[in-house]
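Renewal narrative, Specific Aim 1. Our central claim is that a sequence can be written position by position from structural information alone. The example that follows is taken directly from our test logs and has not been curated for this report. It begins with the structure tokens describing the chain, in the order in which they were read.
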């Protein structure tokens, strides 16, 4: 499998803002309510991790029921968030069932268009929102030797290519689907939380992989580039069929931005 500088999974693309303020009596523009969720990847890491501005988080999982993620992956997503984010108001997961998306394999622009059509929860008041779409098709960037499992493409937007995950498991029955889902989801979340050194502001920059930028050099870390590498993940799962944990340096970077 091949990775570009911002590939979280097998070949995951990452699209590389300040909070905008306006007076209460200023008339909002029609798209203003989406502005906080249309920023570059990584810029909202501190807002997600700390309770300085947002004390509550809502995660919206969007999927067609045929491609719904496993209950195990959803539960492990909740555990991951509770372990790393400071949200005293709570972290909730909302599930939104939609029609099958048309047009696969999907370009990243088509993924953005699907978000515009189906996302229902946006950052508002004290509550920050994250959107995760489980696609019923593959990425248009897949080749005969590389596939994309997931992409974090905006500050609060992620796509998981659920069909690709299922195809990989079908062809490699030693891999557990729920574990692969959890690994993919948590790896992509690591990117919207700023890992690794996404905005060149991590306190431990020495653990960024010089050969695979924005990934961790520690091989056992969740943010190591092979943690989500399609072909490599088969061998890794055969050795340890479990979700990799964040290494201490990645955790320290999250804590420096207000996380746990």
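The sequence written for that structure reads:
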């Amino acid at each position: 499998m091949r990775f570009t500088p911002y590939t979280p999974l097998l070949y995951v693309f990452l699209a590389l803002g300040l909070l905008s303020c306006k007076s209460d009596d200023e008339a909002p523009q029609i798209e203003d309510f989406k502005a906080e969720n249309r920023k570059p990847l990584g810029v909202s890491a501190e807002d997600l991790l700390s309770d300085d501005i947002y004390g509550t988080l809502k995660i919206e999982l969007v999927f067609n029921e045929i491609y719904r993620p496993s209950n195990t992956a959803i539960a492990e997503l909740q555990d991951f968030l509770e372990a790393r984010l400071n949200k005293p108001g709570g972290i909730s997961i909302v599930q939104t069932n939609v029609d099958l998306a048309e047009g696969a394999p999907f370009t990243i622009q088509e993924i953005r268009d699907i978000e515009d059509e189906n996302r229902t929860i946006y950052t508002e008041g004290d509550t920050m929102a994250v959107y995760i779409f489980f696609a019923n098709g593959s990425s248009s960037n897949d080749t005969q030797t590389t596939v994309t499992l997931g992409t974090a493409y905006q500050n609060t937007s992620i796509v998981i290519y659920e069909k690709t995950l299922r195809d990989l498991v079908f062809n490699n029955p030693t891999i557990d689907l729920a574990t692969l889902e959890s690994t993919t989801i948590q790896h992509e979340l690591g990117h919207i939380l700023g890992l690794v050194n996404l905005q060149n502001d991590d306190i431990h920059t020495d653990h960024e992989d010089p050969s695979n930028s924005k990934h961790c050099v520690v091989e056992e870390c969740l943010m190591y580039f092979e943690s989500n590498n399609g072909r490599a993940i088969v061998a890794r799962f055969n050795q340890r069929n479990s979700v990799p944990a964040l290494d201490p340096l990645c955790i320290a970077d999250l804590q420096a931005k207000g996380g746990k």
